[in-house]
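Quick start: what a row looks like.
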Amino acid sequence: MRPSRRFKVWLEERLQAAAPGTRLPTDGQLASRFGVSRSTVRRVLETYRDRGLVERIPGKGTFLPRPAERPDPEDAPPKSSAENIADHMLHAIHTGALRRGQVLPPVKQVVYQFRVSSTSVQQAYRMLQDKGVVTKVGRTFWIGTFMDTLVPETRKSICMLAENQAEITKIFTAFSQARAYQKMEHELLANGYALDFLTLDALPAHLRQWRKSRRLPYGFAFRCSSHTAFDPLRADWDAIRSLAARSETRSPVMLLEVIGALHGRRPPGLELLSGGNVQTATARTLARYLVDRRWHEANFFTAAAGGMTLPGLAKSRAELKHLDGDFVFRITAVAPDKPTRQRIAKKLADSMTPVPWTEQAILGKYEPVPKDVLMSEVSVLRSYGEVFDRFPNARMWVFERDGQAAKALQWATDNHVRVPDQLSIMTTDHDPDFLQIGFSCCFPDYEQIGYQMAHALIGDYPVTRTSKGFIRTRSLLVERHTTRNSR
């Protein structure tokens, strides 16, 4: 084993075994122990420092980072207005609400928003400047370094993996997350990174080529529908990380979008974006909206072909019940002929047998819901008119797709049902083909998600994460012409 490789293996083992705050040997001691140069030691440790795995303190040495200490709120002095504003801006930058290369809000705008003095705002901006988060050019504070305000030349590549060519096309056009991937690509380009597309069957040949050249892509991205889609890639990912260690290059990060659960050992170097978390963010935002607007009953429509995913419906139900235990939640489907209605009812019943419906594992903080209770909340009817007549108190209809909502709106128009006065319509979609209708909608913030995905790959700042370590996402809610407050 090469000396530099032995040093990295020792360092990885030390990071896992030693207690936080442990001081590592000096650079000279490490160089002598492993038979490498001091410059090699410095280069490796600086790489680990940039990843937040070690702390390099001038004049003191290299330490394993300590966990963040939580001071007693009673002992901690209250923060100043400037500190609170700086924290607020920093959080906005880490969540993608404010983005690199953009300008911080004008001082007057922040003064008006937070009811503070201009001196406090200017002091907050200087704090961010001292941390290296923003750069002052003239009177303007830019987020990031001065170079972030420019469009750099492409200098590094990110490998986008897919099972086949058709899958690549779907990722950027057909899937609901296509807008997130488009934003991710644009953000990468704006920061000097280009996507190179690669199918899994071609990966072994590229691995051989990377071994010969000792050069690797800066990062990888892979969308998988379940853990079984990633399992065949585990060995290749381990080989890629091993090659990075032998080549003394940056260990690449893989952004893995997980639609199903990722079971088993979680390989190192993964940044995880959970499709389930995207659903949770939308369900939570929609539930808060409905309860805040004093709605107490709603029909959630699933399309005849399956429509709204049952996990998404489960989360909407759980979030609503968490906020309002008496909320009347109903799954509704419409089909004109009896055989289709029977098929839909059977499909819904079959889908409720496994988790998350009976156990709701993805929403573990909520109580399990028996299947018979869930089935009592399902209605498969002949027409929108029958839904309207049978449930007179459920004047809020929620659809997964704008196309479904458009059919319901057409029925309302044909039957002189006024929207939003007599019926309110929400969607969890934001289809450009239906923007002219003006549906009120709650949908994932794909711009923010794509931005977070890009910077998780670049690794230039810590993106916000959930308690489970997934990239945190958010959803947007837009009120337009098809909803009103419940009476």
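That is the whole record. The chain has four domains: 3-63, 81-149, 156-268, 282-444. Residues 387 and 417 are 13 Å apart (CA to CA).
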